[in-house]
Amino acid sequence: MGLLDAKVSNRNVLVTSVDNVMNWARLSSLWPMGFGLACCAIEMMATNASNYDLERFGIFPRSSPRQSDLMIVAGTVTMKMAERVVTLYEQMPEPRYVLSMGSCSNCGGPYWDHGYHVLKGVDRVIPVDVYVPGCPPRPEALIGGLMKIQELIRMEGLGISREEALKKLAEKSVDAQQVLDQTRKAAIA
Amino acid sequence: MSPAVLESKAAYDIIKERFGDAVSEFDANPTMPFFEVLDASRWVDIALYMRDNSLLQFNYLACLSGMDYPEEEKLGIVCNLECIGKYTHKLAVKVKCQRDGGSIPSVSCVWHTANWHEREAYDMYGMVFEDHPDLRRILCPEDWTGYPLRKDYKVQETYHGIKVPY
């Protein structure tokens, strides 16, 4: 929590940067565009349901692209649907983020070779910020991806572009295998 | 022949008696006994007869699928017909047409289910169904090139500027 690190004086005055407040506000009320394409959408709905409770992050699907800042591409993007996805993306105001959820949306999934009708990765038509692997990914994985988007938003700011923010994030990256090993060790101990 | 196939054979015999050379011999396939319509122009008559004859009553078109026979230079359909209610017999009917520019009479006026199924067969194989009320592509986009389930199908390189193959 960026704001909680800021110094609060005894007269309820909060000293922080504009970037900090703006980013905190943006990342705490992400409104994903509410649409699903295939089986991954079921998993996305489960994530939005009470059991996983995305609203604790302020993430709540919005039915209009004009008020959404995040697009979750959940499922198989067919050639027929690709243009509609692009239209939706273009209707979203900036700054906007795209999360590609599941193998189909990432790279065509099981249709990568023989599926003449499937777009081999949604990044062929719109820029993707975060890829969530899996077929379909579990809600935990999607939440992980959403938190990655939040991290990206936190890195951005006035005068700091998305590219620079991504570079900053890359510096902070951790080796997945290392995390797995640590978790396993902790589980055994 | 199993009792189920014998039942289908009995139904076939009634059709054969009425239409003679327009239909082929009976194939006692144990999973799905079938016959072929040799004279495709009589397909609608045969379909109506199969539906309306009180001894046949094939009132349910369970499935209509397309087929490609490149070695015969032909396209075709396979209709899985059943009776719901009085009888339990089942029959598959095959109808073929020329691979290039061929057409098969539509049976969407006989079984309404055929409407969408024939559109699908047209979309995937490219045969024309004569007198179909609404013969448009159903799965692929309207401006898609080629018929994806033909055995010699090659996917197009781009669609509206989007690269298609991997």
Features:
heterodimer; A: about 190 residues; alpha/beta; Rossmann fold; two-stranded antiparallel ribbon; about 10% strand; globular; B: about 170 residues; Beta Polymerase, domain 2; four-stranded mixed β-sheet; two-stranded parallel sheet; 3 helices; about 25% helix; NADH-quinone oxidoreductase subunit C (chain B); cell inner membrane (chain B); quinone (chain B)
Ends apart, CA distance between termini of chain A: 30 Å
CATH architecture of chain A: 3-Layer(aba) Sandwich
Q: What is the string of helix and strand elements of chain B? A: HEHEEEEHEEE
Number of domains of chain B: 1
Classified by CATH, the class of chain A is Alpha Beta
Q: Give the oligomer, counting copies of the same chain as homo and different chains as hetero.
A: heterodimer
* Strand order across the largest sheet of chain A: 3-4-5-6
Q: What's the pLDDT, averaged over the residues of chain A?
A: 87
Architecture of chain B in CATH?
A: 2-Layer Sandwich
Series of secondary-structure elements of chain A, N-terminal to C-terminal: HEEHEHEHEHEHHH
Biggest interface pair, residues each?
A-B, 13 and 14 residues
Tell me the name of the CATH homologous superfamily of chain B.
NADH:ubiquinone oxidoreductase Nqo5 subunit
Major sheet size, sense and barrel closure of chain B: 4 strands, mixed
> Mind telling me the C-alpha Rg of chain A?
18 Å
Biggest sheet strand line-up of chain B: 1-4-3-2
Q: Give a short account of the largest sheet of chain A.
A: 4 strands, parallel
State the shape of chain B. Answer: elongated
Which percent bin holds the helix content of chain A? 40-55%
When the domains of chain A are counted, the total is 1
GO cellular component, one term (chain B): plasma membrane
Family (chain B): Belongs to the complex I 30 kDa subunit family.
Main location (chain B): membrane
Subcellular location (chain B): Cell inner membrane
